[in-house]
Every structure is written in C-alpha cells, then in structure tokens.
Request: fold
Amino acid sequence: MACGDHDLTLQNFDDYTEDEVFAEVTGISEEQFRFLRDGGDYVDAETGETKHFDGHLFDEVVFNNSIQEFLSKKEALSNYFDESVYEDIFDYIPAQKTNQIYTPKSVVKHMVDDLEDNNPGIFDDPNKTFADLYMKSGLYITEIVKRLFRSEKMKQLYPDDGTRIKYILENQVYGFASTRIIYLIATNYIFVFNDEIKRNVLGVHFKERDTAEYAKNGTLEQLVQDEFGGE
Reply:
C-alpha cells in the first residue's frame, strides 16, 4: 500500500489517505466506506422510507490480516539492490481499472539493457540525467539507479556508498506520475531506504503531471524543459 504501515487497520483505514487517493484506490468515497463499515440510516430510493443499515460489511479479521501480510511482503521485497530477489511487490498487485498495468521487472531490465547497448558508458557519466516521463511503479528509475550505483567509474568518483547513492538520487534521476496514487507508489518505492533524500528530492525531481495530455498536445518537451530544464 502506498500510504500504509503496520498500524493500519479496518478501523482507521479511512484516516490514512487523502480523500482523492482513497476514492481512486477503493472506488468509493470515505463517507461511503464508513457507511459500509459502521452502518447508519439511509433513505430507500424506491419507497422514500428511512431505513437503517447495520454495517459490518467487511470481515475485520480478514481485512486486518490481509493488510499485514501485504505490508510484510512489501518490506521483504523492498531492497531493489538485491539481485537474488526475482519478485517485486508489483507482482502482487492486479491490473487496475484505471489501466495502470505495471511493467514486469524482466521487461524493465531489458529496456535498460537496450539503453546501455545503444549508449556504451552511459552509466559511467555523473553528468548524465535520466527521466521516466510516465512512471507507474518506479521500477524503471530504480533499475537506472542500480546501474549508476554499480558503475566502476561512479565508484571511483564516489567511493562511499552513501555518498554515491545520494548523488545519484539528487542529481541524475527524474520522473512524472499521472495521478497522486501513482506518484506515491513510485516515490515510496524509489526512496524506500532513505527518507532524508526523499524529502530533498520530492517535488523537485519527481512531480505529479499527466504527461499523456502534454504528449497529445505536442507540448511534452516544453513541460520537461519547464520542470527540469534548470536542473
């Protein structure tokens, strides 16, 4: 979950997210969710009578256990530098009604392999910058980050691991996300291990913009220049 931690339960689920994010994730408003969970009076559309619904639509034990299991799995798969892990948390998220389908990790790696094959040494240059103009998961950016981090040239320039990853995240990677929830999902994944860098970079290198509209209008290049051109 983009906005969850292990204190999240059925009883406080509606307090964890912004209203628009809640509606996008669940398909209902927070008010509707509370009605289904807690019950309340309503007017029968056919008879006009005021009736009462007891609520308790959700099985609280199943709900809470499912959240904890998902969060535990997310934590277990959070280290994207660990090449022994072939899964990622997005393997456990079904295709969304919003048409947000996450690109498999194997496909992302192939894309970055092609980028490197066509541009030898591209990950050895500390002045190179990389952008994902339509982020969905953050996997493309994290694959770029890994290649830069493991570059022998970058290791020579920044021998300390912490200094090197900080430089990469604060100077070399950028991205746009089309919606608030996708923005939260992607940036939480990219910056899972360092909140300080996340605070420094969010809103500067990673922004919420629906670039599909700009592409249709032929203004995407100008958007990139306006938002990131001075970096």
User: Anything to note?
Assistant: Residues 93-228 form one domain. The CA atoms of residues 14 and 33 lie 8 Å apart. The first strand starts at residue 40 and ends at 43. The chain has two domains: 13-70, 93-228.
